[in-house]
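Predict fold of Carbamoyl phosphate synthase preATP-grasp domain-containing protein; 69 aa.
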Amino acid sequence: MPKDPRIKKVLVIGSGPIIIGQAAEFDYSGTQACRALKAEGIETVLLNSEIYKEVLLFLAHIQNGAGRW
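Predicted 3D structure, encoded as tokens:
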């Protein structure tokens, strides 16, 4: 499929909550999709509904004194 030059940004939707032990595989596939799109010059936004991971990332960000979220 040829690249459509009108596409500048893509929303990649994660798999969401799943059973324990499989989250890493789905997170990996989402990040690989973002990498492939970035290599094509397309900006990506990865949306993942696993809120507990977002909270942990936020807390780690605050603890490291990295400034604004």
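Residues 9-63 form a domain with the Rossmann fold fold (CATH 3.40.50.20).
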